[in-house]
Specification:
0% strand, elongated
């Protein structure tokens, strides 16, 4: 992790306390990759020093994550789908695949919204595709909040228990985040390469494309 970013986060939280935790966690969930592993763990460290309260720190982190997720969700809901339909062909995304993603989120969105909040990197960006796919907003909000609770309270508790050794969470958590980011980038690259080889926008090449009228 960049040392300047860590210094910035810790300095801001040390100066502004709960307000800084809230704002940073909003940004982290609104597609800005500010690591909650630093924000919440350092908040927990300040809890151990009596400067913050564990319950309010964890709860504010979760509520802030939900608010940030709303921003990303509505960006995807009202901006992402039209852009994807207009420009998606340039990255080999077809309209019927967007429809399929919408159906998938309708059926499995609760699990996606919940478990993605427990995965570094993924948790920052999952709200955008949920909005693009049109996942019901109330369900999105509920399961996002439920998924954020164990993450924010777990990190806050870790910072509280480790005290002066709070850096250990970042030290061992950062490699996992890097591995996840590289893996996701590799999977996206592999998917784009396969789509390019398969003919890109030719819907007939898609085995899931409709073969004729659906008689129910």
């Amino acid at each position: 992790m960049f040392e300047w970013l860590e210094r910035f986060i810790t300095d801001v939280i040390g100066q502004y306390g709960y307000l800084a935790v809230f704002v940073l966690m909003v940004l982290e969930s609104a597609l800005i990759p500010i690591p909650s592993e630093i924000t919440m763990v350092f908040g927990g460290f300040l809890v151990s020093r009596g400067q913050l309260d564990l319950f309010w720190t964890g709860l504010l982190g979760s509520l802030a994550n939900v608010l940030g997720s709303w921003l990303a969700y509505w960006l995807g809901r009202y901006g992402g789908r039209p852009l994807a339909e207009r420009w998606g062909r340039y990255v080999f995304i077809r309209k019927h695949e967007l429809d399929r993603a919408e159906r998938w989120f309708a059926e499995h969105g609760e699990a996606a919204a919940f478990f993605s909040r427990l995965i570094p990197v993924v948790r920052t960006f999952i709200s955008l595709p949920a909005g693009v796919a049109g996942m019901p907003f109330r369900k999105f909000t509920l399961y996002t909040f439920l998924g954020c609770l164990p993450w924010t309270f777990g990190l806050t508790a870790a910072g509280y228990l480790l005290g002066e050794q709070w850096h250990l969470v970042e030290r061992y958590g950062e490699p996992a985040s890097v591995v996840i980011a590289i893996t996701l980038a590799g999977l996206i690259g592999w998917w784009l390469w396969r789509r390019a080889r398969s003919g890109g926008t030719d819907e007939g090449a898609d085995p899931f494309a409709s073969k004729g009228p659906d008689h129910g």
